[in-house]
Recover the amino acids of this structure.
């Protein structure tokens, strides 16, 4: 356990993932190709573009959550999570690709303004007859909501995420080889400024990408809502990945019930946090009953969106809450995997709930959830997810399974639950 | 697939070779079980120090201001407070929220840090819980006496009465009644359950010393604690359950306090981020008060081996984190007030920063956003005098936060014709000033008669308590 680090022994090498990475890449390219075909061939290109925004927001949420968890791990000098952290670090490899995949949206902002975000097109006709350019509510915020700012800010968000990820990955991977403690201190410093930077980046990304789709609407809670989904998504994928690695044999002898229980307990805590944030936002808007705010929810209570709202209420909160309450479900792989896959799916529905109703007909009625757009959401999610999975697996194959020189690695490997209060 | 995950051998384990960055000790100088018992019990058993009498006298004198203020209010009417249209809520609710917020750190340290298995909490949790209870007592004074006819305060509870008068269950003020009373009850229970083993220890020590009166007194409150295996098993389960119950309560109380404002339409109050923002602010102010109290206590009783620099570092970092969250909320409120393009909201925030109460706003920003940033520096964290001074700034800043939120929004609401400027009356000032005396009297009594640290919990985090004998 405490012997000097040897060279990468064949016995310790993870099973090859190249073939699987190739499958992910193919799935990703196929998904992206189908989405692109839909965009150019389908009657409603705006629906395809908005569905693609759902896909990119969803996978960004997963990876942003992973970044936040790694940062939080370092700021707390946590012990139990060291054996899991490496998988999140691999997940961060997706950020540059997510930026590349966001470029079509930036291109659309310049080439077809108003296709996705109506405020980008000043001649865009609003419900009631007037245009964005003559809308006093737009004119008030025009210095923030314009294509140049949008582009600069989006590039800035990705720059922050890619830079923070690069620092954390370099520190962790290099420490495996040289065992220098300076990398641990570097990661802690990165975490200290990285957490507020990431908090601001994800907040404004949520405002620009999703909230501004209906730019009349506002809520100070929106950034916190996105944060809660990011963390929940990352934890759900954390469970999926670690169970997969355990089933494959990689984690056997490393990953125990106690570390697993901590991960799922954290997932449980964030179920409650998400519900707290979402309820607070809804309740305060419902109770105040101000039309400037309630219209956002009113739209989502029409057609089948009402049922989607109910699905979120029960599927995003009650089902996982009651499920995670049971210790056995938190400490056992099979049920934890099932509920994590469910949570990962329901977060996608939540993103759809926030994005897709922005697509309205000329009467201001949103297009239904169950429409052809759902197909484009799926192709986008598969396409972008395939690329993210490929990026993860590429990174996974290049490093040790766990950070073998981390100062808390032994603590993590021997982690057991405290019995004293 | 459904089996539990269990460890087994793995070839990679042979390569594991961690770099050496040892964990901080939670008890310095290798102090053993006996030393900890003697140190903590010695504070209660020793002759009452002269400084304690001086402090108690001053605190009681200050507390008399609250008593005088309340007697005058009850004898005269609520009009003796400085409320007047449009500021019909002012220092009473400011002070209520201020004290309730302070109470949050105690439960956070005891319950949430317990669930998160943060071992550093053990040295400070007892005093923090006591602080919670005393802060809730101080907080309760203001709404109870604001009802006017205080002898009718029982009407706050839904007790059937001859007039069929029922509370407005749709009002967050009524929710406050339930939330705060539940929180107070659970906090007392949590504190008391944690005390049981130490009360048993005190009983046994007084018995051995031949002081039968005190032995009987502590024995009565120890409720038959004998330290048997069954007692410990029940105790630990009860403590864990109470921690689980108290955790949502910590969040719910200040969430409901935030609803007092956020459910309204008043500019500056109706904003969706209020619930988590109030909770973060409460934890921030609570830790400010914990440091204000614990640092002098540490110096007076020479507790440096039990409340180490690491404990101070942790408290400073939590203060820094929660202060930064509060700063995020301030920024988000300001930004959305502009982004929302509602002229009243926009005006409310511009008025806060540059209007008649700008002085209060900038005190708030300075104390709550700028002050905690000093805790980035290790040199600052290691200077306990400076940390103590900064903790007082935090307390001041959080009082001003409530003042800014409440008074500035009411003083400049929708109709300029109804605008006003609020100043507190001398009765209000007396009443609030006196609550620091009430709080101090209770806290002084606590440190005089109750072990200020949970001895068994502190002992559990020293290396001698590790059954493996390896420090892990």
């Amino acid at each position: 356990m405490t012997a000097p680090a040897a060279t990468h022994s064949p016995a310790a090498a993870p099973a090859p993932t190249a073939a699987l990475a190739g499958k992910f890449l193919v799935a990703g390219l196929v998904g992206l190709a189908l989405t692109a075909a839909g965009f150019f061939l389908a009657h409603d290109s705006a629906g395809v573009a908005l569905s693609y925004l759902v896909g990119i927001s969803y996978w960004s949420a997963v990876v942003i959550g992973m970044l936040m968890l790694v940062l939080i791990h370092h700021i707390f000098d946590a012990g139990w999570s060291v054996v899991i952290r490496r998988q999140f670090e691999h997940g961060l490899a997706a950020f540059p690709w997510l930026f590349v995949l966001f470029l079509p949206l930036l291109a659309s902002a310049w080439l077809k303004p108003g296709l996705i975000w109506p405020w980008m097109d000043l001649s865009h006709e609003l419900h009631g007859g007037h245009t964005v350019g003559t809308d006093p509510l737009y004119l008030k915020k025009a210095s923030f909501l314009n294509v140049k700012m949008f582009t600069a800010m989006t590039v800035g968000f990705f720059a922050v995420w890619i830079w923070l990820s690069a620092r954390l990955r370099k520190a962790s991977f290099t420490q495996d080889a040289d065992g220098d403690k300076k990398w641990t201190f570097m990661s802690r410093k990165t975490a200290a400024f990285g957490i507020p930077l990431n908090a601001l980046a994800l907040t404004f990304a949520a405002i620009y990408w999703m909230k501004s789709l209906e730019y009349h609407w506002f809520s100070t809670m929106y950034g916190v809502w996105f944060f809660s989904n990011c963390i929940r998504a990352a934890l759900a994928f954390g469970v999926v990945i670690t169970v997969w690695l355990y089933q494959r044999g990689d984690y056997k002898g490393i990953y125990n019930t106690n570390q697993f229980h901590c991960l799922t307990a954290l997932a449980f805590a964030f179920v409650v946090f998400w519900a707290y944030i979402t309820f607070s936002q809804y309740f305060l808007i419902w109770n105040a009953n101000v039309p400037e705010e309630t219209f956002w929810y009113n739209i989502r209570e029409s057609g089948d969106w009402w049922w989607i709202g109910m699905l979120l209420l029960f599927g995003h909160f009650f089902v996982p809450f009651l499920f995670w309450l049971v210790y056995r479900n938190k400490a056992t792989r099979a049920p934890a995997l099932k509920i994590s896959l469910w949570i990962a799916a329901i977060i996608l529905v939540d993103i759809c709930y926030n994005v897709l109703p922005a697509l309205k007909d000329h009467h201001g009625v949103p297009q239904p959830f169950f429409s052809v757009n759902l197909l484009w959401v799926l192709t986008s999610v598969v396409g972008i997810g395939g690329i993210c999975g490929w990026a993860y697996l590429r990174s996974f194959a290049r490093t040790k399974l766990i950070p073998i020189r981390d100062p808390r690695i032994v603590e993590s490997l021997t982690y057991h639950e405290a019995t004293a209060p | 697939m459904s089996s539990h995950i269990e460890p087994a051998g793995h070839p990679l384990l042979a390569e594991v070779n961690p770099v050496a960055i040892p964990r901080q000790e939670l008890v310095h100088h290798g102090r053993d079980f006996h030393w900890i018992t003697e140190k903590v019990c010695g504070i209660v058993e020793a002759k009452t120090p002269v400084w304690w009498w001086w402090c108690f006298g001053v605190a009681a004198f200050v507390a008399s201001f609250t008593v005088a203020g309340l007697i005058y209010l009850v004898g005269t009417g609520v009009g003796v407070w400085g409320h007047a249209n449009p500021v019909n809520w002012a220092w009473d609710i400011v002070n209520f929220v201020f004290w309730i917020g302070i109470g949050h750190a105690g439960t956070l340290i005891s319950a949430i840090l317990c669930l998160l298995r943060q071992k550093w909490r053990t040295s400070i949790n007892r005093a923090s819980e006591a602080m919670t209870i005393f802060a809730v007592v101080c907080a309760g004074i203001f709404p109870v006496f604001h009802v006017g006819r205080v002898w009718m305060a029982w009407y706050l509870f839904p007790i059937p009465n001859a007039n069929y008068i029922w509370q407005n269950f749709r009002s967050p003020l009524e929710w406050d009644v339930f939330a705060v009373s539940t929180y107070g009850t659970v906090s007392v229970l949590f504190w008391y359950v944690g005390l049981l083993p130490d009360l048993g220890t005190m009983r046994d020590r007084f018995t051995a010393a031949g002081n039968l009166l005190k032995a009987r007194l502590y024995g009565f409150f120890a409720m038959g604690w004998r330290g048997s295996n069954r007692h410990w098993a029940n105790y630990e389960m009860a403590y864990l359950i109470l921690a689980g119950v108290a955790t949502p309560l910590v969040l719910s109380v200040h969430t409901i306090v935030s609803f007092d404002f956020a459910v309204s339409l008043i500019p500056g109050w109706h904003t969706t981020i209020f619930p988590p923002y109030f909770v973060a602010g409460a934890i921030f102010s609570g830790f400010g008060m914990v440091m204000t109290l614990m640092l002098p206590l540490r110096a007076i009783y020479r507790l440096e081996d039990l409340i180490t620099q690491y404990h101070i570092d942790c408290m400073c970092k939590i203060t820094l984190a929660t202060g930064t969250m509060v700063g995020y909320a301030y920024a988000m409120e300001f930004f959305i007030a502009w982004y929302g393009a509602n002229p009243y909201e926009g005006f409310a925030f511009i008025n806060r920063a540059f209007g008649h109460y700008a002085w209060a706003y900038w005190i708030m920003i300075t104390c709550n956003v700028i002050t905690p940033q000093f805790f980035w520096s290790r040199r600052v964290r290691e200077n306990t005098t400076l940390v103590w001074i900064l903790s007082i700034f935090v307390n001041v800043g959080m009082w001003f936060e409530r003042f800014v939120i409440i008074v500035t929004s009411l003083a400049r609401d929708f109709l300029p014709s109804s605008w006003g400027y609020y100043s507190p009356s001398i009765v209000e000032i007396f009443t609030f000033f006196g609550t620091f005396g009430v709080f101090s009297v209770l806290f002084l009594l606590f440190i005089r008669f109750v072990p200020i640290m949970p001895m068994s919990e502190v002992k559990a985090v020293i290396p001698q308590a590790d059954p493996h004998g390896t420090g892990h």
